[in-house]
Amino acid sequence: MNISESFRTAIFNLIANKLRSFLTMLGIIIGIAAVVTMTGLGQGMREQVVGEISSLGSNLLTVIPGRVRQTPWGFMRARGSFKVLKYRYLEELQNMQLPGVRAITAELNTMKTVTYLGESTTVSIVGTTPEYLTIRNFALQQGRFFGDYDLRYARKVAVLGATVAQDLFGDPALALGKTIRIGKTNFTVVGVLESKTSMGQDLGNQVLVPISTHRQYLSGETYLQSITIQTVDQKDLDLVERIVRDFFTRKIGDAEQFDVLNQADILKTINTVTGSITLFLAAITGISLLVGGIGVMNIMLVSVVERTREIGLRKAIGAKPRDILFQCVIEGSLLTLSGGVVGVILGVLMGRVGARFTQWTFT
User: Fold this and answer.
1) Quick check: is 363 in a domain?
2) Which helix or strand (DSSP H or E) is residue 191 part of?
3) 43 and 64: one domain?
4) pLDDT per residue over 232-271, tens digit each?
5) b vs e for 134-159, b when ≥16 Cβ sit within 10 Å of the residue's Cβ?
6) Total-model pTM
7) Distance spanning both ends of the chain, measured CA to CA
8) Are 59 and 230 in contact (CB under 8 A)?
9) 268, 296, 314 — which closes off a domain?
10) Would you say residue 276 lies in a domain?
11) What are phi and psi of 129, to 5 degrees?
């Protein structure tokens, strides 16, 4: 019996037992579909998270008060005082002209009620520097961002997030030039940011003001909450991190009172965690694939037992044991191959449907 004849016989036998063939394939279909769906969604989740973090700026080092330790599930703050990053440290870093550094900014955050006429909303008021706009990848939809002049003279100007502008004015275009009240101080709106979200958080629900203005009129705070440094290239991150750590260790006197978060390390941790989750899910769903494979073996064993007379007849007319084995292998291969193809197609469809509900990409 040649190969083409063996294939025809195998197809005939599978069609003759349609229900049994379908039920046998079903285990393979479900197993393959589950593995394809979970691995595709897991990879999509990883790309989504990495993309969201990268959208907040690239090649970043963030200096924060307190020591941060890494856990298997990410980063968490361990110990240290919040009052260690003095404003003059920011100025000194900017004057050092560090090699490989593109820009440096800082943040000072507080919650305040913003009022315009009869409308009010309580949002995050971020005191920062002109470099913040480019470092954090924000774009303006109206007006301008505050500049060095506004920072130097602590001018009472504000840039609204898109959500705040919508809440207070209805149309962001109407916000420019208007006077709003932040806490007990009047500010002039000079710009409105484009709408932006990250990690499910609405970044338009904030108001940006010069950090000098924030310190003088809103918080009275002399310590910063973070300093962010952007390098020209990712390869510069490690060198700049060493310089920055040495700088703050000398200034503060205790390396345990601050930490420097390297964006490349954070992305590496996220890739490791999401990769482990994807592998774990794939392993669980792979069990169903194993069960499907055992089902195929079981059905092939039953098929051989049922066809004992047919096998004896074939041997009587000259068929060799390897011919009988080859026939069984072809039938089993056709079952698993057909189930695999259908499973891949079904898995892709399920993955795309799942991606619509989770807002992840499916890859």
Assistant:
1) no
2) strand 185-193
3) no
4) 888 888 899 999 999 999 988 888 888 888 887 777 777 7
5) ebbebeeebbebbeeebbeebbbbbb
6) 0.69
7) 44
8) yes
9) 268
10) no
11) -115, 170
In one letter, which amino acid is 359? Answer: Q
Assign 3-state DSSP to the chain and report helix, strand, coil percentages, each to 5.
55, 25, 20
Decide if 204 contacts 161 (C-beta within 8 A). yes
b/e 77-86 (16+ beta carbons within 10 angstroms → b)? eeebeeebbe
C-alpha dist (Å) from residue 107 to 67, 117, 203, 217, 251: 18, 28, 15, 15, 19
What's the one-letter identity of residue 350?
A: M
Torsion of Cα atoms, 119 then 197 then 107 then 213, to 10°: -30
CA distance 33 to 289: 9
| Structural contact between residues 355 and 39, judged by C-beta atoms closer than 8 angstroms | no
Q: Give the model confidence (pLDDT) of 293-321 as tens digits.
A: 888 788 777 777 777 777 777 777 777 77
